[in-house]
Specification:
The chain is globular, with a radius of gyration of 20 Å. Helix content is 73%, strand content 0%. Helix 1 crosses helix 4, helix 9 packs antiparallel against helix 12 and helix 10 crosses helix 11. The protein has 212 residues and is mainly alpha-helical. It has two domains: 51 residues, Orthogonal Bundle (Arc Repressor Mutant, subunit A); 155 residues, Orthogonal Bundle (Tetracycline Repressor, domain 2).
Length: 212
């Protein structure tokens, strides 16, 4: 999304400008006039390509999300045991979230505030990459490498170990809750990739039939 607007088609320049506005100002700051001006386009071009603000916001979100779905799909369909493919697919989520944490936080805040396109996107997620992850959980259960519990319960445990700490420290914008030193340590451990991978591996080992 950082490619110079002059190198993009008008439609892509508008999408890039919309992405940048969301990152810097949130979805509430995204207006048609502001996006058109940032992209060097006129309002007629915006209407021609997207019609309405809501349609544009949906396109911005989908453009942002497409690389994640592609990466998770590739990992899910790759060779290897189901548990290895599940790990690779979750690491796609980890890396995407690390690179896109600000946009993700803006998206969640917009949905919580009632933004229609943001809420519609989150409502559509069960049929997207989570479906692929659940498929991998079931495959790993079938070959005996994961416990035979409800696949959603298993996935919730994994994702709460992996992603929830980072999501919380990203979303929190106020003063340190537990003092500067402890809050700094919590934030660092929640964000560092090595720590995230360590929590993922702990969670997967804890969900093996032998561990349970």
């Amino acid at each position: 999304m950082a490619v110079a607007a002059a190198r993009l088609s008008t439609r892509d320049a508008l999408l890039a400008a919309g992405h940048n506005v969301v990152v810097t100002e949130g979805f509430t700051g995204l207006t048609v006039r502001k996006v058109a001006a940032a992209a060097g386009a006129n309002l007629g071009s915006f209407v021609y390509h997207f019609g309405t603000r809501d349609a544009f916001v949906r396109a911005v979100i989908e453009t942002w999300y497409a690389p994640l779905l592609s990466g998770v799909t590739f990992a899910a369909d790759s060779a290897g045991p189901p548990l290895d493919r599940l790990r690779r697919a979750i690491l796609q989520l980890v890396d995407f979230a690390m690179q896109q944490d600000v946009f993700l936080a803006r998206l969640l805040m917009a949905a919580a505030a009632g933004d229609v396109p943001a809420r519609a996107f989150l409502g559509s997620l069960p049929g997207r990459h989570p479906r692929l992850l659940i498929r991998l959980v079931r495959a790993a259960q079938a070959d005996g490498t994961l416990v035979a519990e409800h696949p959603i319960q298993v996935l919730m445990f994994i994702m709460s170990s992996v992603g929830l700490p980072r999501l919380l420290v990203t979303a929190w914008q106020g003063a340190p809750l537990f003092g500067k030193k402890l809050s700094s340590t919590l934030s660092r451990m929640a964000r560092e990739r090595d720590r995230i991978v360590q929590r993922l591996d702990w969670a997967l080992r804890g969900l093996t039939p032998e561990a349970s």
